[in-house]
Design a protein that fits this description.
about 250 residues; alpha/beta; Rossmann fold; five-stranded parallel sheet
């Protein structure tokens, strides 16, 4: 077997931090170290050969990654400035090192700089590694599902909606702060953030709101409150991504 396709056995880290002995079933590719992405010197990242298998059922459906983002992966993200290059590096490091990481990530920046692209790439990388539960939710859609659970005709409950959100190993909560901050929205957001904070669960947040006030624009603290912003400082490493809206440059005529 070529060296590039060799596998190495690793101990399994359980949710409570314990390690189990090496087992034949726990193998990690030496090219991508389980991330699903291979770093090519001078060229960036590409999908590792170990991931190029045909006939596999799409594993991302249960992660709830919207179809819109099927093409998002580290190898399809093209940085255009140093902040984007740095963001890719942090996202890939998180994917490769999880669960041996202390914090999640808070990806901030204007629309169209690839925040969601990188968040989805993390979930895909972890799903390809296997052994971790992952979930994607756009914050507004999550609120809508919770509201719908109050309707007896939907046959769902608030607990059924929130349980995976609170307990999943890695949660992506997209567009934090985008929903109008009513008391109910703030309470629901606080419940999610506080529960995952207390349980030391890893969360990837994306938001268009910054910490520094720009003119009359609201800050992230304005949108989610000072208490929740304080929680996020401890829960997540803040990564500001700069750049122009790639959708505008690609699709505007």
């Amino acid at each position: 077997m070529p060296r590039s396709q060799e596998k190495t056995k690793l101990s399994v880290v359980t949710n409570d931090g314990r390690q189990t002995p090496d087992t034949p079933d726990t193998e990690v590719c030496q090219k991508c170290f389980g991330s699903g992405m291979e770093i090519v010197p001078g060229k960036g990242a590409k999908q590792c050969d170990c991931q190029k298998q045909t006939g596999k059922v799409n594993p991302f459906e249960r992660v709830r990654v919207p179809r819109r983002y099927n093409g998002c992966h580290f190898n399809s993200y093209e940085p255009t400035n140093p902040s984007q290059t740095q963001a890719v590096r942090f996202a890939m490091n998180f994917t490769q090192e999880f669960p041996a990481v202390d914090q999640g990530l808070l990806l901030t920046g204007p629309v169209g700089v690839g925040k969601t692209h990188l968040a989805v790439s993390i979930l895909k990388g972890l799903t390809e590694r296997g052994g971790f539960s992952c979930l994607f939710y756009e914050f507004g859609s999550l609120l809508k599902e919770i509201q719908d659970s109050y309707n007896s005709f939907t046959h769902t409950s608030e607990l059924a909606v929130l349980s995976p959100v609170l307990n999943v190993d890695v949660l992506v909560l997209d567009e934090l702060g985008a929903s109008k901050p009513t008391d109910w929205v703030k309470d629901t957001m606080a419940h999610i953030i506080n529960t995952r904070y207390n349980d030391k669960k890893h969360t990837i947040f994306t938001t268009n709101y910054l910490d520094e006030r720009m003119g009359n624009e609201e800050t992230l603290e304005d949108r989610i409150g000072i208490r929740q912003r304080s929680r996020l400082y401890e829960m997540c490493k803040t990564i500001e991504i700069k750049g122009a809206d790639y959708r505008k440059s690609k699709y505007a005529r």
